[in-house]
């Protein structure tokens, strides 16, 4: 019964999305009376509610392990802990697509409920677009991926008791990214709505911005967590591989970052209209393309995913419809949208335009590098594009971007001069030079990490300069957000460069009782013992690790052998200090009673993820700041209106 | 009409075309060797099991074309292709083997169970010859002509339908 | 149902270093052993990070526990120790496996767009910035 309610709610939600589309289209064309136009917002709200009902029903059947539902039987098990039963609801293709449309419908409902700044016609077009996009994903779910499908005979037990999959990171990492991907659908719909009515205004940017910020925060968190998970789980200390699945999450982030900044220019200065629209379309397009590349299996990746060409074809058709449609609309309409206000080269806008162009170029490089192997395969040649390509080629654009980023926030809007910020610019330049010289003296560091260290130092200082001479208590929350996010980039960059430049690796074959040195650490293999788990046995190496002359800490990395399905994994052990991490992995037995151990000392590697979290925190603060000031602005306008009404 | 505004759409159309094409292509994970059409590299491998000669590149220059089968006792598809190798041998093909990362006892047991079509088997404990040949997995089968030139590479297990094709390649190599 | 099992298997395999049939031989001598000379080891490490593991899904041989990746590391370390240059070793592998084995594309008939596009992007970025900024004020 519960599953049927879920399915019915899903069908009804799809019907409301269709209503939203039709009513919206009629209202925009002006062929509809006010009765039809009045349907649009309620339809969006109810659609959001129904989609939520559907998702809650899915959670329900997973919570009670209803084994007559195919999805539950395939992915769950009555013995699972409750949190993993619930996470199992979205840990599969059908459930994750339902989560996708639910988030999309909820977001659509929310803008229908609260967004009153934009002209009503633009809102109608926006909600019609949101309904249109939603409709495609409902069709995908209902026609090819029904999560509520029943089994003719209920299964005796579920097949999803794989402790490997019962990982809290794995449970919450994908939905985090999803919130990011889908949040960008709102920006997409706003962009399409504004293109249809040709009303690209600062209000439009203000309406769009919180959604972009929210999505961007989720993407930042998702990428940061995913990177740490790969670092921790894969057992070789790598944290970013330029793998297609990683790139699929990075591309929407790059587009959203650019969009965030261009929307800022549009909101504050009514400039960059067409550019902002374009980025709004591109950001969500990148989300959908990423999902397609990952789900269809046309690219091979270390993070394996369910692969199904039939579904791939469906998603590709949706891409053609939505991205193709939006880009066609852009080509037809963008020429009629003027670029808006002018500004000087040396101005806040100038710096933001520069960085927008750089971000777009980086996005183009990542996109091309990811797709290029697919292109050559069509001509029967296989090539690999990896870190040795992405790092230096990306740096061509990242380096100038970081330099401008360090001084850009000091510039005033519209028109400024280098003379005014001359001292700060000189300071930033001096830090870069000093760091370059200093690091070169310390050690033999390759060019890219060297540049990154220098730029990280300059950006760390540069990002704090906007605080200089300001009353920190009166500083707007959004400004705090910007400062912290930029500082976070510097922190993360420092972590990346330090890991590259100063990591120490030690592969050793040691007898129990022997010690190995890695950097400042002395690691002694005390004992090797077998350990038994629920469906694995492991060789556990008990090690005591000593940092210089400090007290020893005990760690116990494991090499696990699972038997259902048979495979081997490494459970690395980490010791985190303020200045880095010791990363220990237990290997196989070597000749003569020795054991293979892999040890790394990675100075400041944790700064990569601290930085990512700071960036996300900055985003949260900016979001709070923007929403609060919007609310304030709204109450002021209301008060003015009331006062006008009072005075006859 | 500003033609530049159409560029994003054009690029996207290219992406669509490529994706649609690739979605309908069978996904092959094979990495083809670039050594086809070139001379066998020098090697001299110890016997992979007692009572069977080892394998050296010098043996390939006697004018007889051969199949060089890269296999291992721990490889499941190798069991699947064993009957086809026997059939090839019955049809007159001379087959030599390279056992990858294998122990003599395991090789002997594998051949006792699945038949031994090989006239010689070299032991390649470090995948060294495999790397020299540009082979990226087991099983793989190379057609080597009588002058020691690599004429053809078959990736994956040999199916029944591949037998006539391989015999044909051997005949071609004879000319 | 079979598809669902495949899905689960696929999801699980993202944890695995090595799945299914596996040999029991010990790893090659230099698969998990560094060269004694740190300078040579650093050279070997830099090279290994740019070579693709042929048996794995998009991993370098420096990041893989697959036995064949271990054998490749062994080859790389031995050859570096014997004085071969990293480029020569990369060339030796590319001669056998083509561009696929190297994560570092080199300009060739099949890879030139990878290098042309960034250059076009630099020009394009320059033109966009110049136009936008010259038209301003």
Automatic annotation (TrEMBL), chain A:
<feature type="transmembrane region" description="Helical">
    <location>
        <begin position="97"/>
        <end position="114"/>
    </location>
</feature>
<feature type="transmembrane region" description="Helical">
    <location>
        <begin position="448"/>
        <end position="467"/>
    </location>
</feature>
<dbReference type="GO" id="GO:0017004">
    <property type="term" value="P:cytochrome complex assembly"/>
</dbReference>
<dbReference type="InterPro" id="IPR003567">
    <property type="entry name" value="Cyt_c_biogenesis"/>
</dbReference>
<dbReference type="InterPro" id="IPR003568">
    <property type="entry name" value="Cyt_c_biogenesis_CcmF"/>
</dbReference>
<protein>
    <submittedName>
        <fullName>Heme lyase CcmF/NrfE family subunit</fullName>
    </submittedName>
</protein>
<dbReference type="GO" id="GO:0016829">
    <property type="term" value="F:lyase activity"/>
</dbReference>
<feature type="transmembrane region" description="Helical">
    <location>
        <begin position="353"/>
        <end position="375"/>
    </location>
</feature>
<feature type="transmembrane region" description="Helical">
    <location>
        <begin position="607"/>
        <end position="629"/>
    </location>
</feature>
<feature type="transmembrane region" description="Helical">
    <location>
        <begin position="275"/>
        <end position="294"/>
    </location>
</feature>
<keyword id="KW-1133">Transmembrane helix</keyword>
<feature type="transmembrane region" description="Helical">
    <location>
        <begin position="178"/>
        <end position="198"/>
    </location>
</feature>
<feature type="transmembrane region" description="Helical">
    <location>
        <begin position="43"/>
        <end position="64"/>
    </location>
</feature>
<dbReference type="InterPro" id="IPR032523">
    <property type="entry name" value="CcmF_C"/>
</dbReference>
<feature type="transmembrane region" description="Helical">
    <location>
        <begin position="250"/>
        <end position="268"/>
    </location>
</feature>
Automatic annotation (TrEMBL), chain B:
<dbReference type="InterPro" id="IPR013766">
    <property type="entry name" value="Thioredoxin_domain"/>
</dbReference>
<dbReference type="GO" id="GO:0030288">
    <property type="term" value="C:outer membrane-bounded periplasmic space"/>
</dbReference>
<dbReference type="GO" id="GO:0015036">
    <property type="term" value="F:disulfide oxidoreductase activity"/>
</dbReference>
<protein>
    <submittedName>
        <fullName>DsbE family thiol:disulfide interchange protein</fullName>
    </submittedName>
</protein>
<dbReference type="GO" id="GO:0017004">
    <property type="term" value="P:cytochrome complex assembly"/>
</dbReference>
<keyword id="KW-0201">Cytochrome c-type biogenesis</keyword>
<feature type="domain" description="Thioredoxin">
    <location>
        <begin position="34"/>
        <end position="175"/>
    </location>
</feature>
<dbReference type="InterPro" id="IPR013740">
    <property type="entry name" value="Redoxin"/>
</dbReference>
<dbReference type="InterPro" id="IPR004799">
    <property type="entry name" value="Periplasmic_diS_OxRdtase_DsbE"/>
</dbReference>
<dbReference type="InterPro" id="IPR036249">
    <property type="entry name" value="Thioredoxin-like_sf"/>
</dbReference>
<comment type="similarity">
    <text>Belongs to the thioredoxin family. DsbE subfamily.</text>
</comment>
<dbReference type="InterPro" id="IPR050553">
    <property type="entry name" value="Thioredoxin_ResA/DsbE_sf"/>
</dbReference>
<dbReference type="Pfam" id="PF08534">
    <property type="entry name" value="Redoxin"/>
</dbReference>
<keyword id="KW-1015">Disulfide bond</keyword>
<keyword id="KW-0676">Redox-active center</keyword>
Automatic annotation (TrEMBL), chain C:
<keyword id="KW-0472">Membrane</keyword>
<dbReference type="Pfam" id="PF03918">
    <property type="entry name" value="CcmH"/>
</dbReference>
<dbReference type="GO" id="GO:0046872">
    <property type="term" value="F:metal ion binding"/>
</dbReference>
<comment type="function">
    <text>Possible subunit of a heme lyase.</text>
</comment>
<dbReference type="InterPro" id="IPR038297">
    <property type="entry name" value="CcmH/CycL/NrfF/Ccl2_sf"/>
</dbReference>
<dbReference type="InterPro" id="IPR051263">
    <property type="entry name" value="C-type_cytochrome_biogenesis"/>
</dbReference>
<keyword id="KW-0732">Signal</keyword>
<protein>
    <recommendedName>
        <fullName>Cytochrome c-type biogenesis protein</fullName>
    </recommendedName>
</protein>
<feature type="transmembrane region" description="Helical">
    <location>
        <begin position="112"/>
        <end position="130"/>
    </location>
</feature>
<comment type="similarity">
    <text>Belongs to the CcmH/CycL/Ccl2/NrfF family.</text>
</comment>
<keyword id="KW-0349">Heme</keyword>
<feature type="domain" description="CcmH/CycL/Ccl2/NrfF N-terminal">
    <location>
        <begin position="29"/>
        <end position="136"/>
    </location>
</feature>
<keyword id="KW-1133">Transmembrane helix</keyword>
<dbReference type="InterPro" id="IPR005616">
    <property type="entry name" value="CcmH/CycL/Ccl2/NrfF_N"/>
</dbReference>
<dbReference type="GO" id="GO:0005886">
    <property type="term" value="C:plasma membrane"/>
</dbReference>
